[in-house]
TrEMBL record:
Pathway: Cofactor biosynthesis; coenzyme A biosynthesis; CoA from (R)-pantothenate: step 2/5; Cofactor biosynthesis; coenzyme A biosynthesis; CoA from (R)-pantothenate: step 3/5. In the N-terminal section; belongs to the HFCD (homo-oligomeric flavin containing Cys decarboxylase) superfamily. One of its GO terms (biological process) is coenzyme A biosynthetic process. The keyword Oxidoreductase does not apply. Its EC number is 4.1.1.36, 6.3.2.5. It comes from Vannielia litorea. One of its GO terms (cellular component) is phosphopantothenoylcysteine decarboxylase complex. It comes from the Bacteria. Residues 6-216 form the DNA/pantothenate metabolism flavoprotein C-terminal domain. Catalyzes two sequential steps in the biosynthesis of coenzyme A. In the first step cysteine is conjugated to 4'-phosphopantothenate to form 4-phosphopantothenoylcysteine. In the second step the latter compound is decarboxylated to form 4'-phosphopantotheine. Catalyzes two steps in the biosynthesis of coenzyme A. In the first step cysteine is conjugated to 4'-phosphopantothenate to form 4-phosphopantothenoylcysteine, in the latter compound is decarboxylated to form 4'-phosphopantotheine. The gene is coaBC. Its cofactor is Mg(2+); FMN. This is Coenzyme A biosynthesis bifunctional protein CoaBC. Signal peptide: none annotated.
Length: 219
């Protein structure tokens, strides 16, 4: 472990997408690559933190040196996160699926010749960030992300209040930005004190900026 301002601090990080099964061979997912969460884990470890990294099926390999917990679904991520507490800070960079199929089939769904498929019924997944924020084991610093395609700041401000976290890292993931799945990011950090818009930079640089601010906040 590196020595630094975060030495002795345990930071819990979620990253990547989740996969929500439809049947044993099909799932619902999203375009998260896990790149920003992985970069943030590396930056935090670079400042001395010990990191528990709970990751969905990401495209990028998990950070070396972290305590990695691999999960697939939102419910598994929920369980892994609570199992990893207590922590000095928790950062929820994962793009958790908001919904899952109610009764995923245990056999592959087959065409029945009718030309139609029975509609899938969905139910909401647990909101891990909101639950941790309200939990008695709440870390002193809880940070959420808000990936939006429109009305970014308004949605992020509402999220900060609704979820009960301390900071929201808001980013515009409209397709034309190339941010989701890309190597750059442009984030706005929202706290009770206001909004701080960082210029577009590499995900590694965003991670370093965020890690430095986290170290400042935990000092
Ligand atoms: O509500 P929305 O999904 O946009 O909120 C994004 C933030 O909440 C992210 O930090 C994400 O990791 C977290 N989240 C979560 N559990 C969910 C949904 C979102 O932890 N089920």
């Amino acid at each position: 472990l590196a020595e630094g301002p975060l030495s002795g601090k345990h930071i819990l990080l979620t990253s990547g997408p989740t996969h929500e099964p439809i049947d044993p061979v099909r799932y619902i997912a999203n375009r998260s690559s896990g790149a920003q969460g992985t970069a943030l884990a590396r930056a935090l470890m670079g400042l001395g933190a010990s990191v528990t990294f709970v990751t969905g099926p990401a495209l990028v390999p998990p950070p070396a040196g972290a305590s990695v917990v691999k999960v697939e679904t939102a419910r598994q991520m929920h369980e892994a996160v609570f199992a990893a507490l207590p922590a000095d800070a928790a950062v929820f960079a994962a793009a958790v699926a908001d919904w899952r199929v109610v009764d995923a089939s245990d056999k592959k769904i087959k065409k029945d010749g009718s030309g139609r498929i029975a509609p899938l019924e969905f139910t909401e997944n647990p909101d891990i960030l909101a639950e941790v924020s309200k939990s008695p084991q709440r870390p002193g610093l809880v940070i959420g992300f808000a990936a939006e395609t429109n009305d970014l700041i308004a949605h992020a401000e509402a999220k900060l209040k609704r979820k009960g976290c301390d900071w929201i890292i808001a980013n515009d993931v409209s397709p034309e930005t190339g941010i989701m799945g890309g190597s750059e990011n442009a984030v706005t950090i929202l706290t009770a004190a206001g909004a701080d818009a960082l210029p577009r930079m590499s995900k590694d640089q965003v991670a370093q900026q965020l890690a430095a601010r986290i170290a400042e906040a935990l000092r």
